[in-house]
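Deliverable D5.2: sample structural annotation.
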Amino acid sequence: MKNGNVIQIPLPQKRRRPHNYFKDFLLIVIILVLAIIFGKRFVVSTIAQVQMLPQQSINRTITLDGVLIKAEKVFKAPCSGRFHLIRPEGERLEMGAGGAKIITINADGGETTTNMYTDVTGILCRHLDGYESILSPANMDELALPVMGKIDDRPLADGDLVDKGQPVFKIIDNLSPVYMYTTIAKADFAEGFWDEPGTLQVFWNNFEFSIVPGAELVDNGENIEGLFMLKNFPEQIIHRRQVSIDVTAGALGGLLVPEQAVVYKDEQPGIYLVIKKKATWTAVEIKGSLGGKVALSGDEIVEGVPFVSNPILMREGWLIE
């Protein structure tokens, strides 16, 4: 202090250290690596889709269109008049039973009733199509299937006017064999199936029955054509001429997994089981495949064991949460 004035002495300033960008870069790299590691595990675990190995059975069906060939007898009106069924359609009639009647109006206004009696036994049916005498089992040895469009088999309604000699109803012999003529693509069945074809399971209008291949099937390379005999069929189907049925073309049962779940190592198939939260590749034997599913067997392949259904990016020993 001099003459009452304060003399300020400047203090030395601190030198700033240069910013360490390397540490920042290293920290960012560490964070990214950890994110990739844990993120990959999260993504892999999510994609893996762990499921419990199920015991299942699946079927593959195809639709077949065909023509029924059956023993039928057509009855024609003995006179002109109004047509009436005496018994309900679908009822089985014995020989000599009344099936229908024709009511004729006389010149004086009175009525004459002419009853129609059956001389065969079978199911009463009004669905006439004109092929009864052609598509018959009696003609199978020389059967040349006619070219047919959609058949319009509208039955006569009760009270319809008919002419003398007009077909009005028929009797179907449901105790005689009924056949279906159809064409089947060979590719829809397992290779070799048609070398010794067996019984085929059929589904139609909520009914189940079977068809048996005939002795003279025709193999034209891509398709099989010929007659199939119906077994244990519902009587409702014999009123039809043209039918569409669903046929079981393949079946597979057992421990089933998606085809994509199978991973090959040195040509050996296997799947990843989840053991102690880790992916463990386990060898399997493939028993068959159908519709994107594979049937497996193996020492550790049992129902209920967790497995990886989508092993994309999966590696041995990876953690599966």
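Annotation notes: Residues 71-174 form a domain with the OB fold (Dihydrolipoamide Acetyltransferase, E2P) fold (CATH 2.40.50.100). The chain has a mean pLDDT of 85.
The annotation will be released with the project's public dataset once the embargo ends.
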